[in-house]
Amino acid sequence: MATAKVLIAMADYGHDPTETAVPYSAFKQAGFEVQFATENGKAPECDKKMLRGITQKLLGANKSAVKSYDEIAKTAEYLHPLSWSSPDFSLDSYNLVFLPGGHEKGVRQIIDSPIIHKQLGQHFPATKKPSKKTVAAICHGVMVLSETQNSEGKSIIHECDTTALPGRFEQVAFWGTRAFLGDYYKTYGVGSDNVEDSVRKRLDNPAKQYKNSLLPSPFVVQDEKYNYLSGRFPNDAQLLAEQTIALVKSTML
């Protein structure tokens, strides 16, 4: 079986370290070839508040995830990513495109990018089953997909089953930390939609398609029409990676 090629697309700064490092480590252990890409080929940096200091201890990545992140941050592929704004950049050669999340405002660079929207707009339809291509996203990474529109003005995941960061979790985090972190937990600022609401608005039938769980145990949604998987927040990262690996391998048989 050929080696699966993975592209992890990121903003320059602000992604969640657990949602980045845990899947990366799992993909490498599975024998996949992994590359990173940022807008201009600058080495990405995950959210420092989730990695260091009192905010890490109270709210951020656990020791295992921090260790994993510190290890991947030294790898050649992380230090020398591709540029997703390069004229010759393409997603065509990848078996898997993975989109990590993170609530720091820097992730808006990729969520709002017309360049990434164009790339994913061309790529995502090719994941319709049967296909050798897969897309997976977690937390705010799902918004990169939901905000990407096709030629009809619909989100590229308009007919997919999906999950994302639950609105209740986002509100609890925001109001619980507002006194000392301000609007840190609101990526688009106070008064903006929750991630869940933003995603729901892009679905044809959100009551049926949007899947949710408020339990802390890992929860992953796999669509039936497309090779597309999604997760909610860091607790889901390992299971999302495992199920994604299984799906990618099954498509390459």
Question: Quick recap of the structure?
Answer:
The protein has helices spanning 17-29, 53-59, 63-72, 76-79, 108-111, 114-123, 141-146, 167-181, 195-200, 206-209, 237-251, and strands at 5-9, 33-38, 82-83, 96-99, 134-138, 220-222, 228-231. The protein is an alpha/beta fold. It has a single domain, classed as 3-Layer(aba) Sandwich (Rossmann fold).
Describe the structure.
A seven-stranded mixed β-sheet has the order 3-2-1-4-5-7-6. By secondary structure, it is an alpha/beta fold. Helix 1 crosses helix 3 (63-72) and helix 1 runs parallel beside helix 11 (237-251). It has helices spanning 17-29, 53-59, 63-72, 76-79, 108-111, 114-123, 141-146, 167-181, 195-200, 206-209, 237-251, and strands spanning 5-9, 33-38, 82-83, 96-99, 134-138, 220-222, 228-231. The chain contains eleven helices and seven strands. The chain is globular. Strand 6 and strand 7 (228-231) form a beta hairpin. It has one domain (5-251): Class I glutamine amidotransferase (GATase) domain (Rossmann fold, 3-Layer(aba) Sandwich). It starts with a strand and ends with a helix.
Backbone shape: globular
Gyration radius, in Å = 17 Å
**CATH homologous group name:** Class I glutamine amidotransferase (GATase) domain
CATH class: Alpha Beta
Instruction: Indicate the proportion of strand residues.
Output: 5-15%
Number of strands: 7
Strand count, sense and closure of the main sheet?
7 strands, mixed
- Helix tally? 11
Overall domain count: 1
Structural class category: alpha/beta
CATH topology-level name: Rossmann fold
Distance between the termini: 7 Å
Low-confidence stretches are none
Q: Strand order across the biggest sheet?
A: 3-2-1-4-5-7-6
Q: Which architecture per CATH?
A: 3-Layer(aba) Sandwich
